[in-house]
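Record type: monomer structure entry
Structure origin: computed from sequence
Chain ID: A
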Amino acid sequence: MEIWINPACSKCRSAIGLLDAEGADYTVRRYLEDVPSADEIRDVLERLGLEPWDIVRTQEAVAKELGLKEWARDAASRERWITALAGHPKLIQRPIITADDGTAVVARSEEAVRDALSR
């Protein structure tokens, strides 16, 4: 499994702590430094079963600068959202865990981390 983190994020640190406590085998990806490509974002979205606007941190300054709250949330706008996430990784919700079974979770709670561990 892989976990996308921002080390400055308390939810990311909590998720890592739980993974470590459970003896999980995982890889850390600091996604602000190792920025996911548009294709990787599409893959994670498919694994999550979500749309790009579902994993956007709308309170980030760049989200406000881009006016994301006004962007359409439909199939025709999907690529625009993915391009924004790839171009501004701070917009990506964190942490995201890609599980060994091909699924993924946004692991902002202990329950979500445990769910990823059980897959």
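Annotation 1: The chain has a mean pLDDT of 96.
Annotation 2: The beta strands are 2-5, 27-30, 96-98, 104-106.
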